[in-house]
Amino acid sequence: MATIARRGILFIVSGPSGAGKTTLSDAVLRVFEDLELSVSYTTRAPRGEEIDGVDYRFVDRERFDAMLAAGDLAEWAEVHAHRYGTPRQPLERAVAEGRDILLDIDVQGARKIKELFPDAVSVFLLPPDRATLAGRLRGRGTDDDATVSRRLQNACREIASAPDYDFLIVNVDRAAAAAEFEAIVRGERRRVARMRQDVLAAFVRRFETEP
Ligand code: 5GP
After folding, report:
1. Nearest residue CA, atom 19 of ligand 1?
2. In what order do the strands lie in the sheet with 10-14?
3. 26-61 residue pLDDT tens
4. How many whole angstroms separate alpha carbon 121 and alpha carbon 99?
5. Atom number of ligand 1 nearest to Cα 22
């Protein structure tokens, strides 16, 4: 059976730095070849092995503000003293064309995307506890002490927004967390409300009329 045409879904994943969002996103993107990552614009410098155009689009403040003024960003936020924004057009196009997008954005961005796209699905990833989170932030080794403590403070603020999300995943075990995210994707893809009602009606009618 062919699947019934539907609108594309925006899957938002938020959670404090160090909760494991990048690892989780990578795992889910590997499982679903037809799930695309929304590549944000940011004014922060590339970290480690990040690649421009793949992990982020790294731009200077001038370019970022020009995009903002032109209305090219669906949402933007200042996180850890840098600006981050989601390009609008790829989202609108994906929803219309039935393609699904994964957005790794902070709680402010998630709120804005939910306003613009009420059918978006939001998932909050929680670290098991504060000590684990601090350990993960330090273990990354790419940030200095001041950055780590700023991120920890910010983490506590972000976690306060967890109850506003559609789904919550506690990241105790990487594979288990990925499996839970996968289940959410599979489930949301089967929602009748997202399906093209004319295609669905024609599909159902065929059962009555075909020999
Ligand atoms: P990082 O600098 O560690 O890659 O990301 C810092 C935070 O910014 C993360 O919480 C990430 O989810 C968030 N972020 C990344 N891109 C965007 C974006 O386009 N919009 C918003 N609102 N947050 C973003």
Report:
1. 85
2. 35-37, 100-104, 10-14, 121-126, 167-170
3. 999 999 999 999 999 999 999 999 999 999 999 999
4. 14
5. 4
With cut-offs at 50, 70 and 90, classify the pLDDT of residue 140: low
Class of the CATH-defined domain 10-38+100-209: alpha beta
Establish whether residue 171 lines the binding site of ligand 1, counting it when its CB lies within 6 angstroms of any ligand atom: no
Helix (H) or strand (E) holding 101: strand 100-104
| Tokens linked to 14 | 């938020």
Beta bridge partners of 87: 73
Better-predicted residue by pLDDT, 161 or 130 = 161
Distance 173 CA to ligand 1 centre (A): 23
The domain segmentation of the chain, as residue ranges, is 10-38+100-209
Share of the chain above pLDDT 70, in %: 98
Nearest Cα residue to 11 out of 43, 36, 39, 33: 36
Protein residue closest via CA to atom 21 of ligand 1 = 105
One-letter amino acid at 148 equals V
| CA 46 to the chain's CA centroid | 19
Q: Which of 11, 26, 40 to mutate to test the pocket of ligand 1 (most atoms within 8 A of CB)?
A: 40
